């Protein structure tokens, strides 16, 4: 049941990440996908091997990955904005300086 | 009771997630994503992972606070006053994501999951803390190094001035 | 410490509101603007203000985002009540979750978005500036606040509020964590837009996030601000001041007294300190306060290891 929720969140996020044009909206889609991983990780921990803490540690690592994604995503978005006033993925197609 | 709560929270989480890409206003999109995260975090609370659930909520609300700034700053139509579509290749994305959902959900329901091993410890938070400070310390050390590298590289990417540019002169006068 | 029944939510909420009204009365008494009027008039000011706001017609701006605006106006009060759920008063709390301290922290982060959307929803320049100022200020105080909350948790060896309180039976945490205590009080003022951290609601932007709401909205927002102060003061008395510990008097009275004292101090400081600009707060918080808090945490951790064996 938890995995179905995770799957739904993942699919929603995927839709967003694929269909949106703006960098920030793509990042929101990615966030949703990672959120699905958090839910799935907690569910695996609880329903399969609750005696070992590995599942919980996994969730923490995923959370850290999420922050890294956010920070770097925003940094790149700021850089793009500064460099060429673009906030669209299409405009950023060539990443040559 | 627990099943009902879970179903409600799951619906809320997915509805929030969908709303992110449906609403016009960027502010509402950010808040919708925050609602989705809070619902997901509350769902995690249901499986006795109190610390993980609350920390997820905490982190996500914080990120959405920051997100709000960037959303409004970078989007060309933040207030949703001029309704417009920001999609491209909408149909393709819809098909791909529905197929992925069916695959994942099918896998989740169809896989013969192994039997549950062991029972949850009486205090999962304590168990997590001991794991981080014990057997899983290396993982956390790696994470901390990665986070530090992130801070530095994000600053380098985002900052507008270089090593020798000095303080920004645009600082408002002190008596302003 | 016993788990309280569900109905105890009501008296807890009433207690928060009572403290909030007390703070409002005290603030009215301390306001120098009305000094020539009688003390009765000044003490009754919250009452008159409430009556006025209840009768006032709700004014609106051009194309506000009504949903977010209302949510933001109601937010602080809701957050304050949710915070109060885990705060033990006299050895009792409505709920005592394993992660009480983190719960408090998560709620104060929830204020980021709520206050910001109160500023955004009004669709007014001053309100929006206020909302962004709140975010900027929050970035400054949040990290020191987190480490300040970590101190008592490390010393008690638990994130559960009841165990944090119980760990102070010998010595109150304020004695050997003065920095964390100060940072915590500052952060309470920060998330309540109070005193030196009243920048998001500053006079230079016509009240900032408080500029546009009127009528009931404004009443709820102002009440929420006082309620946040009250919840923060109660939390401070439980985290650092030993909660119900004290001689002669019964425990619940000590809890109530300490909370009232901290709250009164917070209210009194409002007009005695200049409002700090957010960039100054940021500098101060990251360059001075954060290292100090970390040093405090190191001291606490070393003591906890040595004493705890």
From TrEMBL, chain B:
InterPro entries attached to this UniProt entry: NADH_UbQ/plastoQ_OxRdtase_su6, Nuo/plastoQ_OxRdtase_6_NuoJ
Coiled coil: none
Class of the enzyme per the UniProt entry, highest EC level: translocase
Recorded catalytic activity of this chain's protein: a quinone + NADH + 5 H(+)(in) = a quinol + NAD(+) + 4 H(+)(out)
Keyword Endoplasmic reticulum: no
Keyword list, A-Z: Cell membrane, Membrane, NAD, Quinone, Transmembrane, Transmembrane helix
Localization annotation: Cell membrane
Membrane topology, record value: Multi-pass membrane protein
GO cellular component: plasma membrane
Any GO molecular function: quinone binding
Transmembrane segments: 50-72, 93-113, 133-158
EC number: 7.1.1.-
Function text: NDH-1 shuttles electrons from NADH, via FMN and iron-sulfur (Fe-S) centers, to quinones in the respiratory chain. Couples the redox reaction to proton translocation (for every two electrons transferred, four hydrogen ions are translocated across the cytoplasmic membrane), and thus conserves the redox energy in a proton gradient.
Family assignment from sequence similarity: Belongs to the complex I subunit 6 family.
Name of the featured protein: NADH-quinone oxidoreductase subunit J
From TrEMBL, chain C:
GO molecular function: NADH dehydrogenase activity
GO biological process: aerobic respiration
GO cellular component, one term: plasma membrane
The keyword Translocase belongs to this UniProt entry's keyword annotation: no
Cellular localisation: Cell membrane; Membrane
Record-linked InterPro entries: NADH_UbQ_OxRdtase_su1/FPO
Record flagged with keyword Transmembrane: yes
Pfam families per UniProt: NADHdh
Alphabetical keyword list: Membrane, NAD, Transmembrane, Transmembrane helix
Transmembrane segments: 6-30, 67-89, 109-129, 141-159, 171-194, 226-245, 251-269, 281-307
Family: Belongs to the complex I subunit 1 family.
Protein name in UniProt: NADH dehydrogenase subunit H
